[in-house]
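Structural prep section.
Before we set up the soaks we want a predicted structure of the protein with guanosine-5'-monophosphate in place, mainly to decide which crystallisation condition to try first. Input record follows.
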Amino acid sequence: MQILKQRIQKDGLIKDNQVLKVDSFLNHQLDLALLEEMGQEFCRRFAGKPITKVLTIESSGIAIAYPVARELGVPLVVAKKTQSVNLDGELYVAEIESFTHEITQRVIVSKKYLTGQDHVLIIDDFLANGYALQGLISLAEAADATVEGLGIAIEKGFQKGGKRIRNLGYHLESLAIIDSMDEKTGTISFRD
Ligand code: 5GP
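Run finished without errors. Recording the tokens verbatim:
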């Protein structure tokens, strides 16, 4: 998606050649017009799928997923990160290794909000090693829901998540795929 790539070139900040900071338009301060256009692009890419719920993870997935669910006219379900073990049988739980915080986090969704009748579109901001997506997939599968697709704003193609998720046979769409980035020169190269 050209406008997203241009915005990343203009305002993205590279850290240690591994992490891209997009705080000025996607993660901290939000460009709502851009987010709406991204939402429409996701809807075009997953057109015709019988989606009943959009599933994302707090907190940075919410802003990306909101316009998608709004446009599709379906509920947005937000998987919550929690430290406490409150396993009363009413929750689906997955463990996710955090890319940015280097810890394992527990994510939960109430059984009330995901069921075997649901056809789920999973949305998140970044794809690095694929742990967040795998956690969200396992929550959907624990509910016997059908995963119709996965939409990512920015995939770092030089990390292994994209390959991993595509090899599992899922329909994965990323609006911008970065093949390499260099902190010294500030260069970011995108996949065509
Ligand atoms: P993964 O689980 O695929 O290894 O990492 C994806 C998750 O880590 C995303 O939910 C995202 O919040 C965070 N993340 C991974 N890489 C980056 C990055 O380069 N920049 C930012 N801002 N977040 C990232």
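Observations: The pocket of guanosine-5'-monophosphate is lined by residues 19-22, 27, 60, 99-100, 124-132, 156, 161 (CB under 6 Å).
Flagged for discussion at group meeting.
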